[in-house]
Specification:
The complex is a heterodimer of chains A (273) and B (222).
Chain A (H helix, E strand, L loop, with lengths): L23 E10 L2 E11 L4 E5 L6 H8 L7 E6 L14 E4 L11 H11 L5 H12 L13 H13 L5 E5 L7 H16 L3 E6 L2 H7 L2 E6 L2 E2 L3 E2 L5 H14 L6 H4 L11
Parallel strand pairs in A: 3-7, 3-8, 5-6, 6-7
Antiparallel strand pairs in A: 1-2, 1-4, 8-9, 8-10
Helix pairs in contact in A: 2-3, 3-4, 6-7
Chain B lengths: L2 H16 L1 H23 L1 H32 L3 H7 L4 H30 L3 H4 L1 H26 L5 H28 L8 H27 L1
The chains are: A alpha/beta (273), B mainly alpha (222).
């Protein structure tokens, strides 16, 4: 698979978030829906080239966190920085984000190519047609002239990824993006994400699968009860070890110090091992 | 391509392919006009008086149906969320949706004028050029209000019921003024004689367009 170009360049040198050079920074993010507090002071930092997995059970608030990072939901407290800018005050910062959610966020009545050309226009890309063809070729979207509503779930997921990539963002936010893909497509996507990170892009992926986390990320956070735990490096850990660490952290609460981190790293592989 | 033009193109392209909105709106409008036409013929003295109201009752109900569906299409597959990810301003998103809705309602009004000439009052066709002004200006305010309320109600379970409940009372001033202007036009008044009501309609349009541009971001982001 060819490498999809990730824009480079200096981040906002004066920006508070950009001073640290991170692609994504979330500082003390709180978000509630009615009386339900979904996020309680979440802190996260994704440097360029990093892959971060957000692990959590169903209903933990993973999608809400990603939507806050994508500037689809406004945090009620705290701030989010994308490449040094707050997307709520600097709309252009949204150009640096690609987001893939549970739904493709495309119009069913338009073809994949028409949808992508629409989004290319909205991102102000001068070479929309060429970009659309390139991203469809990269992701192996052959049926690009068929209406989205006629495509299979897996192909819609690829089209959603194409939408998230067409403007060449620096940050990819993926909400259970591998779910629903066949093993070959999931492998292909994981390969692409490795290439994306190697090119300097940052990936933040929400998942409840330890295997997906190992495949895509180099660090993981557990989100449970609205609290986002400290980052756990995944180097040297296999899916079973990550699953054990994840299970222990959910049971003990994300604020607890895990045996792995207390012992100085991943070598201990968490409790019970 | 300008983002607003791209968004309007998107809405019209989808509609040209599916003809979903125009078909459903036209069908409701036609049935409404048939019922009103039959009712008018059974009470001849009242027939001449109902024409202005018949035009707006038909347009209002058929357009409300279309507006609800137009916003529902934006929520299928969370397409609107995709638009909100882009750096395009929320005001531009409102203006584009409003323009698309306005084009559809203007097409509906043209069809209603034609059908009501045949079904209710042949005089409508002869005065169509003058009638078009209060109808079009009314459509501008009606769709501005409907676009904002459509975005507000589309995520609710009872959107098909909520939209007319909220929209029709809010659009009542525009409907009353437009109906009055249409009545005077049917009596033979020229454009100059309709200046007063047309100015009132324009003022309503400006107020609700400004409200829509201002409030749309709050409506779609939460």
């Amino acid at each position: 698979m060819d490498r999809w170009p990730v824009p480079t360049g200096a981040h906002d040198p004066d920006g508070e978030g950009g001073a640290r050079g991170a692609s994504v920074v979330a500082e003390d993010v709180w978000r509630a829906f009615g009386r339900a507090r979904v996020l309680r002071g979440a802190r996260l930092e994704a440097p360029p080239g990093s892959g971060i997995a957000i692990l959590g059970p169903n209903g933990a608030g993973k999608s809400t966190l990603l939507r806050v990072l994508a500037a689809l939901l406004r945090p009620q407290r705290g701030r989010v920085w994308i490449c040094g800018d707050d997307p709520w005050t600097v709309p252009a910062a949204r150009r640096n984000v690609g987001f893939v959610g549970h739904e493709p966020m495309l119009y069913g009545g338009l073809s994949v190519a028409e949808n992508l050309r629409l989004f290319a226009s909205l991102y102000g890309l001068p070479d929309a047609r060429a970009r659309v063809e390139a991203v469809c070729d990269l992701l192996g979207i052959g049926r690009r002239h068929e209406p989205v509503r006629r495509l299979s779930r897996g192909m819609q997921q690829r089209a959603a990824l194409a939408r998230a990539l067409v403007h060449r963002p620096r940050v990819l936010l993926l909400d259970e993006a591998l779910t629903g893909l066949d093993p070959e497509a999931a492998q292909r996507l994981a390969g692409f994400l490795a290439e994306f990170r190697a090119g300097g892009g940052a990936v933040v992926m929400a998942t409840h699968s330890a295997a997906e986390a190992v495949r895509v990320a180099d660090r993981a956070h557990v989100l449970a009860g609205g609290r986002l735990g400290e980052a756990q490096p995944l180097a040297g850990m296999d899916a079973d070890a990550v699953q054990a660490w994840y299970g222990w952290t959910v049971a003990a609460g994300p604020g607890a110090v895990t045996p792995a981190s207390r012992a100085g790293g991943a070598a201990d592989r968490g409790p019970g091992r | 391509m300008n983002p607003i033009i791209a968004l309007v193109w998107k809405d019209l392209s989808i509609e040209l392919r599916t003809r979903e909105l125009v078909t459903s709106m036209s069908l409701v409008a036609f049935l409404s006009l048939v019922i009103l036409g039959l009712a008018a013929r059974s009470t001849p003295p009242a027939a001449s008086g109902i024409t202005p109201a018949a035009l707006w009752v038909t347009v209002a109900f058929a357009a409300t149906l279309g507006l609800a569906r137009a916003h529902a299409l934006d929520h299928e597959r969370e397409a609107l969320q995709g638009l909100l990810l882009t750096p395009v301003s929320r005001s531009a998103l409102f203006v584009a949706k409003w323009a698309s809705n306005l084009i559809l309602v203007l097409v509906l009004e043209a069809a209603v004028l034609l059908a009501s000439t045949a079904l209710i009052d042949p005089g409508i066709g002869r005065r169509a050029s003058v009638l078009a002004l209060p109808l079009a200006l009314g459509a501008v305010g009606f769709t501005a209000t409907g676009t904002l309320l459509g975005a507000m109600t589309v995520t609710t379970r009872l959107r098909e019921v909520l939209l007319p409940i909220l929209l029709l009372p809010l659009a009542l001033p525009v409907i009353i003024v437009s109906v009055a202007a249409i009545a005077r036009a049917l009596e033979g008044a020229g454009v100059a004689a309709l200046a007063g009501p047309l100015k009132m309609l324009a003022a309503y349009d400006v107020v609700f367009a400004a409200l829509g541009v201002w409030l749309f971001a709050h409506v779609v982001e939460e």
